[in-house]
Design goal:
Family: Belongs to the glyoxalase I family.
CATH class of the largest domain: Alpha Beta
Bound molecules: fe (ii) ion
Number of strands: 9
Pfam families: Glyoxalase (PF00903)
Protein name: VOC domain-containing protein
Strand content: 15-25%
Organism: Cladophialophora psammophila CBS 110553
Structural class: alpha+beta
Largest sheet: 5 strands, mixed
Helix content: 25-40%
Strand order of the largest sheet: 5-8-7-6-9
Distance between the termini: 42 Å
Radius of gyration: 19 Å
Number of helices: 8
Order of helices and strands: EHEEEEHEEEHHEHHHH
InterPro entries: Glyas_Bleomycin-R_OHBP_Dase, Glyas_Fos-R_dOase_dom, GlyoxalaseI/FosfomycinResist, VOC_core
């Protein structure tokens, strides 16, 4: 093995091969652990009274929950993480998980076709937001082209959908690709929100009194 030499002050830092995990601190440890085990279909790879490392795929932990003494309630107005997004391979899988979560008493906050993705959002017991999604395009390149288009600039938020309606239409034999590629079109608040920058969507939910708040993308 050769020596490790950086690319220099103006060079590009080597990117990681993957995002490994997210750690959430909480003051209601067991409630959060139970929620994430149910939500993710996960199990603990290691767990004790204050830490739970949750796994559901080839990674030893994707989410860890930590009980840290003195942790206060989440402030939705503070800077920092807005949500964590998890992907499914198919719309059918996204809707199956939606149905199974409902059977566990976990209801979504918001269901929206963003354009690049079809997404269903949730809120954990501490108020952290979670996005579950499926890509609407066959390839990342196609999605990137769409995100650089005028249509996406016009409406980067998307159009709400009803998961139950999607489930009925899939059962009736409608094509997944057709269901995902809705004509997103302009949205009344979209242009106004863009003026507020990254806090815009948070502002929208604040002024409309919706129960969900935070930045969606
Ligand atoms: Fe997102």
């Amino acid at each position: 093995m050769g020596s490790i030499n950086g690319a220099g002050k103006f060079g590009k830092v080597k990117s990681h091969s993957k995002l490994a995990h997210v750690v959430l601190i909480t003051n209601q440890f067991q409630k959060m652990v139970d929620y994430y085990k149910a939500f993710l279909g996960a199990e603990a790879s290691h767990e004790n009274e204050i830490m739970s490392f949750l796994t559901y795929d080839d990674e030893h932990h994707r989410i860890a929950i930590a009980a840290i003494p003195g942790t206060g309630p989440k402030d939705p107005r503070s800077c920092g993480l807005a949500h964590i997004a998890f992907s499914f391979d198919t719309l059918r899988d996204l809707l199956q998980a939606y149905t199974e979560r409902k059977q566990h008493g976990i209801e979504p906050l918001w269901s929206v076709n963003h354009g690049p993705t079809t997404s269903i959002y949730y809120q954990d017991p501490d108020g952290n937001h979670i996005e579950t999604q499926v890509d609407n395009f066959e390839t990342n390149d196609e999605a990137t082209v769409f995100m650089q288009s005028a249509a996406f600039a016009q409406n980067p938020i998307g159009t709400d959908f009803d998961p139950e309606d999607h489930i009925r239409r899939l059962a009736a034999g409608e094509d997944e690709a057709k269901l995902k590629r809705v004509e997103v079109g302009p949205r009344l608040v979209a242009e106004k929100l863009m003026g507020y920058g990254c806090g815009g969507i948070f502002f929208y939910y604040l002024v409309t009194g919706a129960s969900n708040c935070g930045m969606y993308a």
